[in-house]
Design goal:
Elements (H helix, E strand, L loop, with lengths): L6 H10 L4 E5 L3 E2 L39 H4 L2 H9 L2 E4 L6 E6 L2 H10 L4 E4 L4 E6 L5 E5 L2 E4 L5 E2 L9 E2 L2 H4 L13 H5 L18 H16 L6 H14 L10 H14 L4 H19 L1
Parallel strand pairs: 6-10
Antiparallel strand pairs: 1-2, 1-3, 3-9, 4-6, 4-8, 5-6, 7-8
Bound molecules: zinc ion (ZN) (3 copies).
Length: 292
Amino acid sequence: MNAATTPLNIALALSSAGVPVLPLRRGKVPFGNCRSCKDGACGGRPNMKSAGPCQCPAPCHAWAAATTDAGVLTSPVWAAVWREAVAVAYHPGGVGLTVVDLDNAAAVAWARETLPATRIVQTTRGEHWLYRGAMPSSNAVRPGVDIKSLMQYARWLGPGTGRMAVLPAAVRALVVKEDTTPAPGEVVSSLPTRAPWSRQVATGCRHTERYVRTGLERGLALVRARAESGAGSQAFGVARFLAAQHTGCPGPCGLAAIGEEIVTAAVLVGVPESYARRAVANGLETAVERAA
Ligand SMILES: [Zn+2]
Ligand SMILES: [Zn+2]
Ligand SMILES: [Zn+2]
């Protein structure tokens, strides 16, 4: 390693560009916590999900230690760590980015087929696709696919190539928050009744009523079948699939009414309404975007 490419020098270059960074040790993972931070004894840092008062000067708490402060990066306690560092990580959410981490060739093939082109960084076995915009992180959203953005770190492997696109709805929809199931009954009664899909709202649709109804019923059944988990992402998929059937119609096709029926089905199996609405809106939008 020459001087310009030591982890510390790479980190300083990134931090001066506003990218929060931290050192990685052998194994390409963050350094462990110091003795007073061990097992979260310190309560954690203020920027963590369970915020605590930790002001530890060492790079403890993984991504939460990432900083753009050159004074911290070159402090004596970090200097000792940099000497053992083998790589640099950054906090994508901290600089308003999302990394779609594709671990293998199959995941890369999926992304090429599904996601809008953007800036790509080659990794050991796969690729990082970078989008402008931050979102909650989540591992294994699909086989071999992790979302690294807020409260996460990603390994820095260079700036990559290609023009960075805005974070698309299709990526946001990969991370489903279904752990906030409300009390049964509560949400169902709060759903306003809206007109179901009918010919009256679909004056420009080239399909028969029977075709649209059958497709919709099939989609709703898929959502209802996911009562245990995954109904939100199923709602997204059903909305996208049904909307795609109408991209050749002059319209209007009553997609809003179709969306409402999907939202209702998802809410009835416990998906929070706001999430169901977002998932369905994203699904409808993705189908339209892709047709455009
Ligand atoms: Zn510490
Ligand atoms: Zn601590
Ligand atoms: Zn149509």
